[in-house]
Amino acid sequence: MGTVNLAADRNSDICVWSLLKQEAATYATKEVALSSLLHATILDQDNLGGALVNHLSEKLATPDFSTLKLRKILTEAMEADPKIVEYAAKDLLAVKERDPACTSFLQAFLYFKGFMAIQTYRCSHALYNSGRDLLSFHLQNRSSELFGVDINPAAKIGHGIMLDHATGFVMGETAVIGNECSVLQGVTLGGTGKADQDRHPKIGNRVLIGANASVLGNIIIGDGSKVAAGSVVLKAVPEGCTVAGVPAKPVGGPCCDNPAKSMVQTL
Questions:
Q1: Which of 77, 79, 94, 265 is the right S-S partner for 126, CB 3.0 to 4.6 Å?
Q2: Residues 106 and 30 both lie in one domain
Q3: Domain check: are 210 and 129 in the same one?
Q4: Exposure b/e, 23-52, CB count within 10 A at least 16 = b
Q5: Which backbone phi and psi does 127 adopt, to 5 degrees?
Q6: Which CATH number do you get for residue 128?
Q7: Tens digits of per-residue pLDDT, 205-225?
Q8: pTM for the whole structure
């Protein structure tokens, strides 16, 4: 299966959807026990947006908030922000490209909780921006319960994000993540103190943040930088810099042009 070139393809959601349906059709025949799930979730849907709505609503539903109600809410969120589907496709591409444990788009779409948590956030963010804050907080809570990921709906996240393993990821209200970033499990993008103004980190593009790292306060983590696993970052990080330690300090210059893509964890 060829790699989808995002730079050359402005319709990545259509390409990913086509590949996802092909994989689902193959597995519907290969694994008969999963046939009904694959048809309901993907093969009977018209597009990637419809598949996302169906999959997330089944996952997020509770006895008090039915799948049917959630389908309506998630559809309204995607109508409010059409980029949700485009960004979801780029997130899937990022996971497929960067995670050696990912064997297919189908695997990531159905079972990778980092992917599902990011898409739930995208819907909650759209609802939050539409003035439907209580609904957005409901989705935040369900994502935290189901996936172990707590992203405030007011936070801002770009496209092409891989949230690897995802468990324990926390992102505060005024935090920002740029495009094409890779974030591992246990990462905290948190504030300091009780100030209600802008108080969370601003992560640039193509940044790699290692497992259990904490980035605290209204600081900028520059494009193409790398934060080593277990670090506590309290000061701004220049572009292309690698930081490590508690508190984190620079330990090297540019390791490569795109640390988030290379996924190299060593210093």
A1: 77
A2: yes
A3: no
A4: bbeebbeeeeeeeebbeebbeebeebbbbb
A5: -65, -40
A6: 1.10.3130.10
A7: 999 999 999 999 999 999 999
A8: 0.93
